[in-house]
Structure formats: structure tokens, C-alpha cells
Amino acid sequence: MSLLFLGCNGPNKKENRSFSDIERKSINCVKQIFEKDSIFGNIRNHASEKVSLTEAINNYSKNSKSLDYSNCPEGFESAFSKHIDAWLDFRKISDKYPLLRGELHDVFAVIEKSKDSTEFKSRLNQILETWKIVEESSNQ
After folding, report:
1. What does the pLDDT look like over 13-43, one tens digit per residue?
2. Share of the chain above pLDDT 70, in %
3. Alpha-carbon gap, residue 77 to 75, rounded angstroms
4. Which helix (H) or strand (E) holds 9?
5. pTM of this prediction?
6. C-alpha to C-alpha distance for 27 and 46, rounded to whole angstroms
7. Distance CA 100, CA 48 (A)
8. Distances from the Cα of 107 to the Cα of 32, 38, 44, 96, angstroms
9. Contact (CB, 8 A) for 45 and 53
10. Distance (Å, rounded) from C-alpha 93 to C-alpha 13?
11. Residues of the chain by 3-state class (helix, strand, coil), percent to 5
């Protein structure tokens, strides 16, 4: 993870530079958010085996929005919020399949082959693109 090098590439490069308290808090904040997101994502991916994908997305979004982003790098919370919004927008597709059950990727495979394939791919691409921005903003 490139976060470990935060602050080492600036114009005042110093060998063996220690992190400031703010940098340490920022690194820890991002690490904690990513760890929780991994847990929430895993729950979401399997929740759709028992509840609708829309409900799984709602729960994932609610949990993700409840996290403490206060010590994260500037822009990280905004980027993560846009990622959550992309998931919430995906409900325009998942709402059409309220009875479809299975692990998230299995559900995606069914929807991808449906009449909603084009919209599915577009909305999934938004989720992936916003995640790239989250990752980029974690390094600032």
C-alpha cells in the first residue's frame, strides 16, 4: 500500500523521516476505513443470498456512511461518499430484480446477461471508477 510512503516524496525529502501525528492519524484513518469497507463489502456480497440486492446495498451504504472519516486525508470522505452514491444509484438496476438471490457476483452475472445489460455495465463502471478515486484520495 503506497500510504506507507505518505510524506516521503515531497520537496523536503529526509532520510529516515518519521511521520507527524497528523500523518499517522491520516494513515490509520484510511486503514481503518478500508478494513471496515472490506468487512461491509463481504457482508453485502453474501447478504444478497438471503435478501434482495437492493437491501444488501442499502445496508452496506448505511454502514459505510456511519464511519468516522474525520482524520482521513482531505477529499477522502467526499470520494468515499461518491462511491457510496454510485452503489445507491445501482439500485435503479437491482430494484428490477427484487427476487433474485445469490452471492453478489452470481447476481451480477445474471443481470449482465439480461435486457438491462447496458445499464448494468454503465452503473457497475461508475462503482469501479469511484473506487479508483477513493484509492487515489487515500494517498493525499
Report:
1. 434 457 788 889 999 999 999 999 999 999 9
2. 88
3. 6
4. none
5. 0.83
6. 29
7. 8
8. 29, 19, 12, 12
9. no
10. 49
11. 65, 0, 35
Distance (Å, whole) CA 24 – CA 138: 13
Cell of 111: 443481470
Alpha-helical segments (H) within 48-116: 53-65, 76-94, 104-112
Whether 2 contacts 139, CB under 8 Å: yes
Give the span between the Cα atoms of 51 and 48, in whole angstroms: 5
State how far the Cα of 41 lies from the Cα of 95, in Å rounded to an integer.
19
With 60 as the cut, is the pLDDT of residue 12 above it?
A: no
Residues in the chain: 140
E strand or H helix at 96: none
For cell 445474471, name the residue.
Answer: 110
Q: How far is CA 74 from the centre of its chain?
A: 17
- As to burial, measured by CB atoms within 10 angstroms (0-12 exposed, 13-18 middle, 19+ buried), residue 83 is buried
Tens digits of residue pLDDT in 37-73? 999 999 999 999 999 999 999 999 999 999 999 999 9
